[in-house]
Amino acid sequence: EMRMEAMGLYVEMTARVDNEAQLMAFTASMPVLSEDGAIEMVMDVGEKVVYMDASLLPGGDESPTKWLSFDMSQMPGMEEELSSITGSNPLDAAALFQDAAAVEDLGLEDLDGEQVKHYRVTVDVAELTKAQPGLFDQLEGIDLPSTVDYDVWVTEDNQLRRMSFELDVLGGPITTEMTVTAVGDIEPVVLPPADEVTD
To answer: CA 179 to CA 186: how far, in whole Å?
Structure first.
């Protein structure tokens, strides 16, 4: 589960990721984009195709099928954008902290009935830029802080369970929080049937 907020706008997302099949499905609440505030998508990361539930879009009742598909490889710049967003295991976000500038142990906490260790990790923005170039390309020319503080919660075997951070950009904060609610036990991600898709 993820929530992002900036300048009074927010996105809330619940996602399922099948790393082996390179599939991702999510429902996102984005009031600024959708009349009822929800958008449902399925991404075939391997084939670079995105499927969007047309019925949840303004004017979607005029779509000939329930789903619309978009070939990201045919849309300038979007293939790279898709890869930067969905190209890895969400648990791999912990790799951002390999070269941390500082780490503070904030002790044990309970998270959904599980004992986790809470850390505050300071990371140089220069290191983040190397790790996530797609994200920071979008912020080119904008003054960024030299470091970012992440709050990170991990299990006894060092699996990431929650991560949050705040980044000040253009005079206002962008806040992001991600929580891992299940690992290895999810509802399968299934592509929409071909007869229900308009390309």
So the answer is: 15
